[in-house]
Design brief:
about 220 residues; alpha/beta; 11 helices; about 55% helix
Length: about 220
């Protein structure tokens, strides 16, 4: 099967690496690159790719905006989403578009991505109703998060963890050392009685869901 693949990612080196890997996996494929949702839409209107590989987190926007465009315009373009951290909210949002066929970790090798593209091109999806239901349960079962119990810096770090940023990325965002971020996380975990960033993120996601103002500001 001929694969015509659109890559949407705001990092040139990442796009180049994915492109090279895909051209090796699918020697006859045609590949287009986009750094923004608008660029991806323009390419789609001109070339009609058969599948899109989309980064969830873009500069000032989300890759799911492209998926929503595909759904709204009724384009036959299955999307494979790449992310460093898939939150239950993003999984549910992707499921709601009806065009996202898979969530993959960016750290994975090319084989899972190639397999996901092949599956998506044949109408198969790993983002099933059961996966969406599990994400919904994760949100429902998460404990509480009260911003008033934390310092301003701790709240900022908690929000960035929930956004999927790594310790290194958070340190760069806040212009502090990684060790400072880890020390703050230790304090946050202790206050919440949790053991991992996933548990912390779940608490914040639930707080966002119950507080529209907080969700819109994140």
């Amino acid at each position: 099967m001929q694969h015509n693949i659109l890559i949407l990612d705001d990092h040139p080196l990442v796009r180049s690496g994915i492109r090279g890997s895909l051209e090796t996996a699918f020697p006859n494929c045609e590949v287009w690159e986009a750094a923004t949702v608008d660029e991806a839409i323009s390419i789609t209107e001109e070339h009609s790719p058969s599948v899109a590989v989309v980064d969830l987190r873009l500069q000032d926007e989300s890759g799911l905006q492209f998926a929503e465009y595909v759904a709204n315009e009724e384009k036959d373009i299955p999307c494979v989403v790449l992310t460093s951290f898939a939150s239950p909210q993003s999984i549910l949002a992707a499921f709601d578009t009806g065009v996202v066929n898979a969530f993959l970790e960016k750290s994975l090798d090319i084989e899972p991505l190639a397999a996901a593209i092949e599956a998506a091109s044949n109408g198969f999806s790993s983002l099933t109703l059961s996966v969406a239901r599990e994400a919904a349960r994760d949100i429902e079962n998460a404990g509480g998060y009260n911003p008033a119990e934390f310092t301003e810096r701790e709240n900022a770090i908690a929000q960035l963890v929930a956004d999927g940023l790594s310790d290194t990325a958070i340190a760069e965002e806040l212009n502090v050392a990684c060790s400072t971020i880890r020390n703050h996380l230790t304090s946050i975990y202790r206050k919440l009685d949790v053991e991992s960033r996933t548990q912390l993120a779940s608490r914040v996601w639930r707080q966002r869901a119950s507080s529209p103002a907080l969700a819109s500001s994140s």
